[in-house]
Amino acid sequence: MKEGDMPTIRVRQDIWELGTETEPWHPVIEGYAKAVRAMMDLAGQTPGDPRSWVNQAAIHERNGPSVFGRLEAQCQHGCWFFLPWHRMYLWQFEQIIRSHLGGAGDDWALPYWNYSDNPDHRKLPPAFRTETLPDGSSNALYTEDRNTAGPRVNAGEPLDGVAVSVTDAMAEQVFARSTPGTTAGFGGGRTNPLFHHSAAGPAGPLEITPHGSVHVQVGGPNGLMASFGTAALDPIFWLHHANIDRLWEVWRRAQPPRANPADSAWLSMGFDLIDETGARAKMQVNDVLDTAAQLGYTYAGLPAPAPAAAEKELIAMTDGERPAEMIGAVEEPVVLAGAARAKASVKLAAPRRPREAGLIDSAPATYLHIEDVVGEANPGLLYGIYVNLADGDEANPDSPHFAGTVSFFGIEVASGEGEGEEAPHRLHYAFNISNVVERLRAEGRWDPNSLDVTFAPVRGLERLGQAAAAPTVQIGRVSVYVQ
Ligand SMILES: [Cu+2]
Q1: How far is the CA of 309 from the centre of ligand 1 (A)?
Q2: CA angle centred on 169, ends 346 and 271, rounded to 5°
Q3: What b/e readout covers 104-134, taking b as 16+ CB neighbours within 10 angstroms?
Q4: How far is the CA of 293 from the centre of ligand 1 (A)?
Q5: Å from CA of 215 to ligand 1 middle
Q6: Which of 69, 251, 319, 433 lies at 20 to 30 Å from 20 by C-alpha?
């Protein structure tokens, strides 16, 4: 390739580096606001244009009745296509935004919202909570339809620390686990059949938090971000997902380095999308794995890539791994109702299967499953999960009892009726609680014969506001596995 022929690599930047509390408007952000407004206007002018704001959001999940011939309800969650599908969706959207910006679109790239690394950045970026643009016209990035219960994100209240934690996600060394009883792996578990609109198995830890937790904390009880059908109508959706996409790259470059699956069922899976001309475009997972070379973008501040030679030796899948064994389950449903705590007691049995010689000296891995979750609407608040919390104990995410959060993002879709392959798969969460068990054992608060699981909102009652009377969620089964 001659000099000058190098493709442009656009850099997706941290929105908090572009716009501050006092100076929210950077040309990249103002360009985004203007393009979003143009897409919103298109819905009125030519409602059939697939590039309009509502039709773009419908690709994720429609809000309201189906429109004949429209690409809709394609989003992938609870499975190993969660990351590549959203990458494709964002990339096509980014091209559509650029098409509205004339020459300024040439090097425009979607910014990301990194809420995890700096506590000040847990606030919704200022340009999204400002009602007007610098010229006084109305700002398309602002919507009232956000969390008004708490945190009140449009008032600049920060998201909770547990909602933005990347600890569990980054601890996963394998992209896709398919071992029964364990967690799903960083990117989610393998699906069978391949196309799954709603959850297919346990969501991967990244999809649970920060992904789902941030959706629900920004959306709250009635806002756009808290449900599949309306999430992409909030302009912050795209910056939230740019961050999730960035975290995939950060994960791959972590030490020791981690690999994407090399399985052809993953690589060759294709999805329909809409390109910047409004035409259908098909992309395969294989087309989107090298963001710079294949898609022409990268992220500011990424660690150096892992050495290519090392990557070949990494395990991306866990086919053939020894299944985890269930040692206890509660089969009566646990009902979560607003701010009230709910508790389930699980009787534990000794594992029946002897551990293999090589494993006997190591502590077993313990997994907690929250399965068969149904509810009509998202309660709009996060619940913390606590192991062996006494009734009088405060539910504190910093305590050794804390095992993770559930936000029930997607519950309204996953709880629907249907049959066969099209049947919705109910929400399913899996947590590796090995560290929790170890800490409790050290404190003398572990009983090998039983385990209590407490669900409690992560915000105290006084900070819950109207979410205290949230819609109920029913958890069909709580179970414990060891491996
Ligand atoms: Cu999402």
Answers
A1: 33
A2: 110
A3: ebeebbbbbbbbbeeeebbbbbbbbbbeebe
A4: 25
A5: 7
A6: 251
CB atoms within 10 A of CB 224: 24
> Tokens representing 345?
């007691």
Rounded Cα–Cα distance for residues 443 and 434 (Å): 14
Task: Return per-residue pLDDT of the chain as tens, 483 residues.
Answer: 444 555 689 999 999 999 999 999 999 999 999 999 999 999 888 889 999 999 999 998 888 888 888 898 888 888 899 999 999 999 999 999 999 999 889 999 999 999 999 999 999 999 999 999 999 999 999 999 999 888 999 999 999 999 999 999 999 989 988 788 888 899 988 876 555 555 556 888 999 999 999 999 999 988 999 998 999 999 999 999 999 999 999 999 988 778 899 889 899 999 999 999 999 999 999 999 999 999 999 999 998 877 765 555 667 777 667 888 999 999 789 999 888 899 999 999 988 876 665 555 567 899 999 998 988 888 888 999 999 999 889 999 999 999 999 999 988 887 766 555 555 678 899 999 999 999 999 999 999 999 999 999 987 655 565 555 778 899 999 999 998
DSSP readout, 368-415? EEEEEEE-SS--SS-EEEEES--TTS---TTSTTEEEEE--TTHHHHT
Per DSSP (E only), the strands in 36-144 are none
CA distances from 337 to 207, 341, 343, 452 (A): 24, 8, 12, 18
223: left (phi over 0), alpha (psi -120 to 50) or beta: beta
* Nearest CA-CA partner of 174 in 190, 163, 162: 190
State how far Cα 135 lies from the chain centre: 35
Nearest to residue 314, comparing CAs of 176, 434, 130, 453? 176
Tokens in use for 397?
Answer: 């995410």
How far apart are the CA of 196 and the centre of ligand 1, in A?
A: 15
Global pTM? 0.93
Count CB atoms within 10 A of the CB of residue 391.
8
What is the distance between the alpha carbons of residues 418 and 426, in angstroms, rounded to a whole number?
Answer: 11
Q: Which residue has the tokens 């909570």?
A: 129
Q: How far is the CA of 82 from the centre of ligand 1 (A)?
A: 9
CA of 466 to the centre of ligand 1 (A): 24
CA distances from 82 to 88, 199, 210 (A): 10, 10, 14
By the 8 A CB rule, do 380 and 470 touch?
Answer: yes
Distance 262 CA to ligand 1 centre (A): 25
- Residue 430: name the closest of 225, 167, 159, 206 by CA: 206
How close is the Cα of 79 to the center of ligand 1, in Å? 13
